[in-house]
Amino acid sequence: xxxxxxxxxxxxxxxxxxxxxxxxxxxxxxxxxxxxxxxxxxxxxxxxxxxxxxxxxxxxxxxxxxxxxxxxxxxxxxxxxxxxxxxxxxxxxxxxxxxxxxxxxxxxxxxxxxxxxxxxxxxxxxxxxxxxxxxxxxxxxxxxxxx
Length: 147
Hints:
- The chain is mainly α.
- It has helices at 17-32, 39-62, 65-91, 97-122, 136-146.
- It has a single domain (12-146), classed as 23S rRNA-intervening sequence (de novo design (two linked rop proteins)), CATH 1.20.1440.60.
- The protein has five helices and no strands.
- The N and C termini lie far apart (36 Å).
């Protein structure tokens, strides 16, 4: 799916499957909680699911490897929260067993993609395989805009 027609270095997170599937998880959480009568439970479930892709994007946008990894761990925490909230909603019969199973399968997929992304970035920590600054070509092209 194409989310936007505009591309630049800061929007590279949109290529990440963990981010894409994280958005799918949010869409599913939104759909599954549509009939949840308790507003707070509905809102917290949706917020936790949405935080997954949001934290991936925010960390990517920070451009610092340690901060990026930190935000990926925040996303992992949001995943755990979303699953716990889904289990709670299933327990009180707001989400059917079949719908919970759909959520759990997608959640597991996102979780594994996120774990692989974290592992990949963690391996770059002690190498010089990460650029914390914008490439010179981009810096030159935006300097006239800064004045």
